[in-house]
Amino acid sequence: MKLTPECVNCIFSQALRVCRTLGVDDVTAKKVLDAVALDVPGWRMEETPPQVASRVYPLIGRLLEKRDLYAEQKAEATRHAAGLVSEAAALAAREPDALTAALKAAVAGNVIDLAATHTFDLKEEIAKIFQTPFAVDDTASLKTALASAREVMVVGDNAGEHLFDKLLLQSLKTLYPHLKLTYAVRGAPIINDITYAQAQSAGIGEVAEILDSGVDTPGLDLSRASQAFMRRYEASDVIIAKGMGNYECLDDTATRPTWFLLKIKCEVVAASLGRSVGEIICKRGGPDA
User: Fold this and answer.
1) Could you give the CA distance from residue 280 to residue 47 in angstroms, rounded to a whole number?
2) Diameter of the chain by CA atoms?
């Protein structure tokens, strides 16, 4: 998905959001906004929003002398999510279809996003997700693919959300014990995206192999992935890509059968999918989609 004027406005606005989130004084916030404004002319419309963000956030980090801008917020999101995972698991256990329930639990975690322009109450969202049908529902084709797959890669998105991803991985392990499961994470801190240490700390390594993609974008940009990661990506029979950033990166670049699993949080992504903000999606992408 390519950059739009709305994306330009959104990414620029995120610079101020970072400053307000971190409690930066107004003089410093103005310096950050000035620096990002000077960078805007270099943003190319053929880029994806995550590619632009991969330059903007390190720029802000250098000005604020803070490499991992949202380190404290990611830790808090993880603590908050930890108190709600059991609730999601209990709701999932009541659902008649175990895979759909696990997918919805993972989508419920997708509301934890410090870069989104809409905010959500996670406790309310968990209950709402289980009562909401997928607006784009390709779960049937996913079930068919999983039945014959040998290796499945789940591409993670945000910190905190990764605890709900673990529920999905555990369900996949139970439903399809023959699968080799991998969980892809970012190669460097970017916004509030999940990295290797956080995934390992959550015990995801107990149910799946954790893979560092090598990318520094808030989404899986295959052009920046390591060769080792790409070998595993190309060997995967099924990719389950979580969140909008991964959709923005992979929508027109995925080379493996991919199912995008997300909640729509902005009008640009909504328009791309032909749906509305707030809807939940399980959409088949990649070759032959």
Assistant:
1) 25
2) 58
What contacts 67, CB < 8 A, 6 or more positions away? Answer: 61, 189
Instruction: For residue 1, name the pLDDT band (cuts at 50, 70, 90).
Output: very high
> Which of 34-48, 115-129, 212-226 is least confident?
115-129
Strands (DSSP E) found in the chain: 136-137, 151-155, 180-185, 209-212, 238-242, 258-263, 280-285
CA–CA distance, 143 with 122 (Å, rounded to integer): 27
Q: Write the CB contacts of 231 (distance below 8 Å, at least 6 apart in sequence).
A: none
Among candidates 142, 179, 160, 131, which has minimal Cα distance to 282? 142
CA distances from 142 to 47, 53, 89, 147, 259 (A): 29, 31, 21, 9, 7
> Is pLDDT above 60 for 117?
no
DSSP category for residue 203: T
d(CA 260, CA 87) in angstroms, rounded, equals 24
The fold for domain 72-285 equals Rossmann fold (3.40.50)
Instruction: Give 172-206 pLDDT, tens digit per residue.
Output: 999 999 999 999 999 999 999 999 999 999 999 99
Within 10 Å of residue 149's Cβ, how many Cβ atoms? 18
Write down the pLDDT at residue 94.
92
CA angle (161 as vertex; 93, 270 as ends), nearest 5: 100
